[in-house]
Design goal:
4 helices, 85 residues, mainly alpha, 0% strand, single chain
Length: 85
């Protein structure tokens, strides 16, 4: 796992504290890619806010990306809990 994926996983765990244990169990390249994408979007939000960027639309766009990924992960975790059938 790359350090970027670790950052993303940690940030998702902060955003979704109830799913923390389940998030630790997600392993594989496809999950790493998802966490890396989340990390990049979240860090971009931080950067824009730190620089007091006047581009609020851009901040909102990256926040929306983060929320979309959180939703995807929540749905994924929910589907992994269901028994096959």
């Amino acid at each position: 796992m790359t350090s970027l994926a670790k950052i993303g996983r940690a940030r998702v765990a902060l955003a979704l504290p109830r799913q923390r244990e389940q998030l630790r169990a997600l392993e594989g390249e496809q999950y790493d890619l998802l966490f890396e994408t989340y990390a990049l979007a979240a860090m971009r939000v931080d950067e824009l806010l730190m620089n007091q960027s006047p581009e609020q639309d851009l901040v909102n766009e990256y926040r929306e990306i983060c929320l979309d990924i959180q939703e995807d992960i929540t749905l994924l975790l929910g589907s992994l809990q269901k028994p096959p059938g």
